[in-house]
């Protein structure tokens, strides 16, 4: 039986499920820890609302690669057309609509 280890602590259930989906697309089984505490929003400390993502130890290296790609996709970027700084979740420039080449 392969043991599970914590890969990441997502700030909320939405982020946890997005990462879980990305990992499972790569064949990595994921267990979520603490998801049920999301109902305590406003009554529990913020860090108790984090959701842990657990993966099998043998998939840790592969899972870390997926996690790295996830974080890189959220990095801010500068529009090559107008120079505007955009948050990483934008695929097009919010100012001029330019779609950068990747």
Topology:
Blueprint: E1 4-10, H1 13-25, E2 30-33, E3 51-56, H2 60-73, E4 77-78, E5 85-86
Antiparallel strand pairs: 1-3, 2-3, 4-5
Overall structural domain count: 1
Helix and strand composition category: alpha+beta
| Global outline | elongated
Helix amount: 25-40%
Q: What order do the strands of the largest sheet run in, or round the barrel if closed? A: 1-3-2
Could you list the spans in which at least 5 consecutive residues all have pLDDT below 50? none
Question: What is the level-2 CATH architecture name?
Answer: 2-Layer Sandwich
Strand percentage lies at 15-25%
Count the DSSP helices: 2
Structure characterization notes:
The structure is a single chain. With 102 residues, this protein is of the alpha+beta class. It is built from two helices and five strands. The protein has a single domain (4-75), classed as Hypothetical protein rpa1041 (Alpha-Beta Plaits), CATH 3.30.70.1530. It has helices at 13-25, 60-73; strands at residues 4-10, 30-33, 51-56, 77-78, 85-86. Strands 1-3-2 form a three-stranded antiparallel sheet, covered by helices on one side. It is elongated, with a radius of gyration of 17 Å. The mean pLDDT is 87. This is DUF2007 domain-containing protein.
């Amino acid at each position: 039986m392969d043991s599970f280890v914590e890969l990441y602590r997502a700030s909320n259930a939405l982020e946890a499920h997005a990462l879980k989906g990305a990992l499972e697309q790569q064949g990595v089984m994921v267990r979520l820890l603490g998801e049920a505490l999301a109902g305590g929003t406003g009554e529990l400390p913020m860090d108790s609302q984090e959701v842990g993502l657990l993966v099998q130890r043998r998939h840790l290296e592969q899972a870390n690669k997926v996690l790295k790609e996830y974080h890189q996709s959220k990095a801010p970027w500068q529009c090559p057309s107008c120079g505007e700084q955009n948050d990483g979740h934008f695929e097009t420039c919010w100012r001029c609509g330019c779609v950068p080449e990747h």
